Amino acid sequence: MAKAFFRLQKFLRRTQFLLFFLTAAYLMAGSLLLLQRTRLVIQQGSRGTSANQAPPVPDGMAGVGIVDPRMLQNPRPSPRLPVGSEAAQEPALDQRHGPRWLVSRNSELRQLRRRWFHRFISDQEPVQTAGFKAMQHPAEHKGTYVGCFSDNSRERTLKGAVFYDLRKMTVSHCQEACAERAYTYAGLAYGAECYCGNRLPAAASKPEECNSECKGEKGSVCGGVNRLSVYRVEELRAGARRRRNVIYRGCFRAPENLTDTFPASLIQPNLTVEMCSEFCSKKEFPLAVIRGRECYCGYPTGRFSLHDGADGLLCSGMHNAEGKYCLVYQTPVQDTRCTDRKFLTTKSKVFVALSSFPGAGNTWARHLIEHATGYYTGSYYFDGALYNKGFKGEKDHWRSRRTICVKTHESGKTEIEMFDSAILLIRNPYKSLMAEFNRKYAGHLGYATDRNWKSKEWPDFVNSYASWWASHVLDWLKFGKRLLVIHYEDLKQSLIPKLKEMVEFLNMTVTEDRLLCVENNRDGNFKRSGARQKDFEPFTQEMKDLINRYILTVDEALRGRNFTGLPREYVPR
């Protein structure tokens, strides 16, 4: 008995020691995990700022601002942007904005940028939620539920407009979006995707196969996997908005054979713009073309690209007796020939960055690239607002190589050399600074208030971010392995030629019709409205003096690398 008791006591002691050891190991593992997570947060907080400080400048170059280190080793005259005589003869910046001040404050500026650049991420959700609630509809849907239908990503059932909201999609939201564009039917899939069309799907499915709950509305069904919950939208709402959404594109020379160029046509005595537009909308075409009493529907194509407009008088009756010219209108229907996107099926061998200073149009460039190539773009960061609106590459790991290119605002040597090549997008710093300040306070689509612009943060923001704008370009010129420099203003003015350059740089080939489709959908979902006054001028003369010097330095550095200099519109200001 004593022997058995001794064995039991020995076993319990071992068990006690084992439990103590496991508990200690568990606590140590938890501590290590917590430290690792803290390190990740710190690293994420410093993104976009690794080496964003203003490059050091010798005392003798105070009147120039930032200087490329290569120019210090081999100084030589270089052509610069033409500036007014007053700007060229301006005295050097005072000591507070001199090179010594910039160098001594590099660490402080980095912290300031980190706080500004990432503060919006934490504030973004409540701001956007409030905006969404303001437009939310009651639970009772305005359309009539038709049924559950099958859907295929290769051959869409509803071939009209496509919308995504991967966190806040509701049935009412989808119906409203389709009604605004004059569609008859709205279909929801995967709980977050909205499709519009004018033709009812043919293949019906069992009601229980539409079983995905709407991301933004508990208790409501938004389709399923390859299944659409289809609603007929409110006729009155759609009809009331048709006339407003028709956009006049201009007068153009008619192609030689209209019936071969346009898939659908209608001949109607006393034809009106509204009649033709409604007919083409029902046929799901984005263009309505009118020649006399003839109405044609179709897309922009190589035969009819809408690039060479004619004088509007040539389309009038007395000047167009032979029918050589036609009037073109944009219907509310979205051109969907380029809206299909996916991840790369095999990992990309070349790791490409889409680099820009914040506010330089990176999101717009991603929209253009995705629709031109048909592949998602990735991001060094994660922006929930972009992900919710269809940029699915936001959630993919930025080093997965499943995306065609990766968005980044980084400008440090290590961060740059991680990429094999890069598209460097440059925008006028005045516009970039205002765009980033607006994003900081009002999101991707809003505007900062007058109170924000008049606050102390605005001049601090300019003093810090202006140097970052310059150092970002200079760092990529110095450390980038293979660069394609694209100026935002050139891309805006000559969309298709510049987009072709970008697509070829990405080693992709696309059809002309797809590029024309991108041009037809050029704005995307993140273009700010024209609410801000065009003559709004938040920059003081001191700010302008500082920014103009950075502009001249960047222009000189670009020319020194045999790239095109900055557009002339950047200065004077």
Automatic annotation (TrEMBL):
Keyword Transit peptide: no
Family recorded in the similarity comment: Belongs to the WSCD family.
Record-annotated WSC domain positions: 142-234, 245-338
Superkingdom, taxonomy of origin: Eukaryota
Keyword Ubl conjugation belongs to the record: no
A Pfam cross-reference name: Sulfotransfer_1
Record GO terms (molecular function): sulfotransferase activity
Protein name (Swiss-Prot/TrEMBL): WSCD1 protein
InterPro entries (UniProt xref): P-loop_NTPase, Sialate-O-sulfotransferase, Sulfotransferase_dom, WSC_carb-bd
Organism of derivation: Chionis minor (Black-faced sheathbill)
Keywords: Repeat
